[in-house]
Input
Amino acid sequence: MPLVDFSPLVNSFKIPDLKRRLIITGALIAVYRVGCYIPTPGIDGGALAEFFSRIARTQGGTIFGIINMFSGGAMEKLTIFALGIMPYISSSIILQLLTAVIPALEKMGKEGKAGYERINQFTRYGTVGLAAIQSFFIALWLENPARFEGLRIVMSPGWGFRIITVLTLSTGTIFIMWLGEQIEERGIGNGISLVITAGIISRIPAAMYQLFVLVSPFAASRRQIQPATLIIMAIFLVAVVFSVVMITQGVRKIPVQYARRIVGRKIYGGQSTYIPLKVDTSGVIAIIFAQSIILFPATLASFIPNPGFQRLAQNLIRGQVLYTVIYGLLIIFFCYFYTAIVFNPQDLSENMKKYGGFIPGIRPGAPTAEFLDYVMTRITLAGAAFIVVIAIFPDFIMACLKVPYLVASFFGGTGILIIVGVMLDSLRQIESHLLTHHYEGFIKSGHMRGRR
Output
């Protein structure tokens, strides 16, 4: 029996509709990656690369590092896709927050498909506005050579450069948003998430090259990482991926019983089901929020030459105890904050009561809402603690094993959570197509066998 079964992959291309969706997905992601190499007009690419090289050598990093990761390295080259999909993510998060506090938006969100499409349209408008604002300030930032220690990045500063930059970067973000929607409609998986994942995965070759240089298998005199350390890193990587998969799929199943109703000669209800409460409801959102806030002082320090502010920023860089403590607390806070927004035990309790459902041993109504809130509060703590460990694990790898952060970043943090989550979601969708056509899927359960 082979160690790796490739039959599900082969079967995926035997189904015409699934084959077409896979090819379209791959083609659209390829278009996105090509755009990450088309430069923005008026930029000295060599000077910009030198500036980001200096940022990479700093221990703490800045918010530009987050944007660069989500854009697949397009930010450090300032290509037409330099902003990546971050404006869309920010707009989506803002709309989610506003939906929780504005009754009109909350009502719209409960209107089904029509309400979802209207909110999605608002998200698109917000994306355009945020992209225009961010690209304008990036243009102003690039025009000042004093901020880059004498490097002249913009060849012809002025309003002409600013307008071109705003139009180019904003259009690039809108085009990426369109690509994501096309993947979701005509391809496989969540389009926006796949675009982000493609950008993160594109950094793997550079990380592998750095690791190869550190190991130097053909020149022992230049070797900085011993083979034993490399084996330990491989074990850590497998353990991190396995644990992320388990927590990502982990749910607490709350049993629900529906009362039996007799209407005429028909019997309704009487079945048992469950409510799956996810251990990690916030996913990667909590880390993104926490990183943006913890790196904000370091980003401002690059613009404000104030000695007191510089000292504060130095205490909030990666590797410092204060950084680790505040970073962990921010992640826990945002895990609870995001869970409170997307999970409403009161609405869930009312819907159960409306359709005759109840949790065995718990009275319907307010007691059910209190019980759900009680359970969710405790499992969120476990999920938040795990996210904290995953978030700071790259710092541990970097400090103890003496490897660059580009290599260490694939042992935890935002990247690994996004890659694992998106891959699992895409596999589930491919799985549903395979099972519909009576093929055995990637995720095997029991002894199910399909036709050949």
In short: The mean pLDDT is 79. The domain at 1-205 is CATH 1.10.3370.10 (Preprotein translocase SecY subunit). The chain has two domains: 1-205, 226-411.
